[in-house]
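To close the chapter, one final illustration. This time we ask the reader to focus less on the individual chains and more on the assembly as a whole: which components sit near each other, and how the overall shape emerges from the parts.
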Amino acid sequence: MKKLFVLLAFFLIATTLPALAADVSTMSKEELKSRLDSPDLTILDVRSGRDWSASEFKIPGAIRAPGEQLAVWSEHYPKDKPLLLYCA
Amino acid sequence: MKSSLLLSLALGVSWILSPESLVIAGNISGQTGWLTFPSLIGVVILYVLCNQLLRTEGLPPAPGREFLILQHGGGSITATTLCLAACLPLTVLAGTALLVTAGYTLNEVFLYWFPNFGFSFLLLALLTILQLLRKEYGLWLQVCFVGLAMGGLLTLSLFGVFSPDKPASEILRQSTGFSFSSASLLLLLFVGHGSSLEQKARPFPLALTTGFIIFFLWILASLGHVSPEKLATSTIPYMTAARKILGEPGRQLMGVVIIFGTCGALNGLMILTRNIVDTLSREKTVPAFLSSKKQRWVLPFFLSAAIGTCMATGLAGDELLESLLRSALILWLLYYSLLCLSAVYWVQKVSAAIPYLSLFCTLLLIAACITLVVGDPHRLQMSIFIFSVLFAGGLLSTCWYFIMRHHKHAP
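The assembled structure is written out below.
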């Protein structure tokens, strides 16, 4: 019974979390390419450490905003304009 | 004779060909321009003089030379602490950093569909299995890793040197002046070159000379194709230069260099650590199960588990890794400096004369260690880490020393 309860709780968490994140919209590669020069779009590279430094692929014009410093940098950007975050 | 020369070279240049060394070389060449060359010559001469000191007649013979020299200078506990502090943190932290870099390289250069972290763990598993096989297999594969990495890097360097984008006069104008801190960083390019000291003494410093030629050509090629500003600030200056030199094939060739350079560096560091721990075990300053016959089933698993834990817990994605890795490299330099200082003390006692040149070289190394810590923006973090490692190593060595003493006196 205890095992069943744990499994049920795990299933609920696993299915609810993506649903909560569904409010955040995503952008396709093609759309991003077409909007790269747009002054309204701010691109944030949220990778940190080796995830950032060892990677060759960095979007031109992207600003570094490591994920663990979210509380610091999130205050600096306007909430009414689109912010594009990428981590891979 | 020839095979032992090859194995000695493969171990001696293992760190020289690592991605980390290529980043340091690229950044420093961007910062100091053509002045990197005289600094590099100075660094190699300094190491050659120090190696000559360590081979002075009257000093203990290999193997175990380093431990005995340190023991003479500061006692068993200090010697054990320094030996452990020089190799263990470096193998674990460099292993973590290099494997992550190799993972990204495979993913971004060769196989987009292959997860980078998956490749890092796969490489770690393969290198661990290699350590479990007979030592000869590890050594011969080390020759293959180093040979492939060196071949790729020399090919790129020669293409870059013979078809420069800029005339030599422009390269000679690119300099912001000499700085001791930049020259000190160049010392970190040759970490572990002395692992060949364990072999028969050679009149010719093979690993150092090979390393010098590699860096000389690669820096010349990089400065001839990439702007110093770009080299100084890039986190992957090797890839930027390779792309500029040969385009997409250059990028792929550098990918091979990075992956095999990582295998060579990590395998070399593991072999170096095993040799050091084996010496300590023979001197009975660490438990007997770490002797060469038994350690095969313990030490590689311990090192791989530590590296795997660092990767799995997200250290690779943390800025902290960079300062910890720099600290681990400085710990090796500190070990080497104190080894030279103990050798100076020994020679002075035997010959009743102070070897002034050797003493000067040793003081330069110690000054470089201090400069590297003090000049770093993360100096507090680094100092805490260095002292913590020395304290932990000292504590373990002291505990084992007293256990062994109690064991000896027990009825």
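Chain A has a mean pLDDT of 78. Helices of chain A lie at 2-21, 29-35, 49-53, 70-73. With these observations in hand, you are ready for the problems at the end of the chapter.
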